[in-house]
Amino acid sequence: MNFIQSAVTKNVVLPKDFKILDEGKPKKGDVILVRFVSEGEYEPTYIRDKHGEKVNLKKGLVFLSALSNRYAPTIMKAEVPEYLKKGDKINLLARGGTTGVITEGKHNYRKAYVEFIGFVKKGDKILNIKDFSILAKDIKNIPKLIIIVGVFEGSGKTTTCENLTKGLVKKGYKVCVGKISGLGNVIDVKKSKDKGASKILEIVDTGYPSTVGLSKDELDEIFLKIFSNLADENPDFILIEIADGVTQRETSMYLKSEIVRKYDPHFIVSVLDPLGACGSLKLLEEKLNIRPLFFTGKGAITSMARNEIEQVTGLKAFDPTTQWKEMTDYMLSLL
Q1: What is the mean pLDDT of residues 15-28?
Q2: First-to-last CA distance in the chain?
Q3: Which of 65, 145, 174, 327 could form a Cys-Cys staple with 265, CB 3.0–4.6 A?
Q4: What number of CA atoms fall less than 13 Å from residue 195's CA on the CB side?
């Protein structure tokens, strides 16, 4: 059978003698084979393979996936199904190739369906992406840690991260980049790699397809695996993106984490508008004792918006796309 490995299974090494189990009780991260069956019903027309490259979605495409849940307030909520047998229809959750069952979607959301072929087994064991996780390392040198958070999904965190990477690299600094929450998809951190990051890691590398519903200990485990492996490269800077917004459960848990705060992080906040900047600053300062270095994101793309942000917060704001040089210089002046 010909198939591709989707991004979420990028680290999976298949044994030559792997077997297929056609039914069972699934767990988050289990590796499965699926066949795309609903051409044209899903707005994205492609998924990402294990290298982050686009693969067109066509009816009959078979790919290696991992089961996951998803929490995206403007799009969908999804869960790992309770049981699966060959021929069952489940949903494609994202371009990274994760699958599950959508339990809630926006009013005009058109679900994409895949057909379950079976669990992938090595001997008697169903493979799980956690079997291919990196391990935490001893942290000998602590680089400057910059954490990029946002007020909500789609606020411009990834754009900020990749352009700040570009700015630092052009000044001769060694930069490593990680993403410690959200849904594994390869492409977000790959954008920073394309801008000169020496090493990139994301949650899939730690054995999780998503961070939805994880415990504090599991989130701390993800952070330490990513941070320690990036620090092992001895960079000048580690840039960490946290998905979604500051009020989202896992993002909030990271911001409160003693493990994260132990490494003296500096924070940058991407916003959608001046009011979001004002509200997020109040929450961060009063609830978490965090004062960001500055604001950025989609809400700071015009001089008018930046002026409003600066007036209501007293902090600078930068368009991450056109002002990456100024943003980099200003950050360096504060550190």
Answers
A1: 94
A2: 54
A3: 145
A4: 27
Query: Residue 162 belongs to what H/E stretch?
Result: helix 157-170
In CATH, 144-334 is 3.40.50.300:
yes
DSSP, collapsed to helix, strand or coil, labels residue 197 as coil
Q: Let me know: does 146 contact 227? Beta carbons within 8 Å.
A: no
What's the token pair of residue 257?
Answer: 């984490």
Determine the residue type at 95: R
- Sketch the domain layout of the chain as residue ranges: 4-132, 144-334
Helix (H) / strand (E) element for 63: namely strand 62-67
Separation CA 138–CA 228 (nearest Å): 7
Would you place residue 208 in the very low, low, confident or very high pLDDT band (cuts 50, 70, 90)?
A: very high
The pairs formed by 307-311 with CB atoms below 8 angstroms and a separation of 24 or more are 308/274, 309/271, 309/274, 309/277, 311/274
Considering the entire predicted model, what is its pTM?
Answer: 0.93
Tens digits of per-residue pLDDT, 299-331?
999 999 999 999 999 999 999 999 999 999 999
